[in-house]
Amino acid sequence: MELEIIQSKIYEIRGYKVMLDRDLAEMYGVETKVLNQAIKRNYDRFEGEDFMFQLTKEELEILRSQFVTSRWGGTRYLPIAFTELGVAMLSSVLSSKTAIQINRGIMRAFITIRQLVLNAPVDRVGELQNEMKELKQCIEEMFADQNDINEDTRMQLDIISQSLAELQSKKKEETPRRPVGYVIPKEGLTSI
To answer: pTM for the full model?
Structure first.
């Protein structure tokens, strides 16, 4: 059986990754009633919620609501959920070749899911936050450099302005300027 098909039948209920008795029975090629009878005959192997537990009506309704079309019609009994340990224990109860092959596939599916959870894809939000911090720091450094340049530029402009003012005052103090244009002499005007 394909890994994806098995993975699609693994649900998270009560914090456990589980498979339901009806899905397991379908995979093993037996009726759900037959599977559950085998469990009852070997109940001491499955004691504890970490092996198996029966769903509540509320859990079943939540599970049904996850599907557009309900795969479960009216059921007389609430389904039994088997954890990874419970599915592994099933291999000791069901010993047909089909059951062994199916159990191998199921165990591989559980391991694949566990590895996906443990080796979660890279945290994209965390990466973006780090990149934003680096970008912000770079921009702040650029503004600091620009402020330094602006301060230096202001100082240089002040020095230039001061030098120009000094040059202008020196020029005014030096020699008087000769008038430009036609100048009529004040003395010695003679008429012809």
So the answer is: 0.53
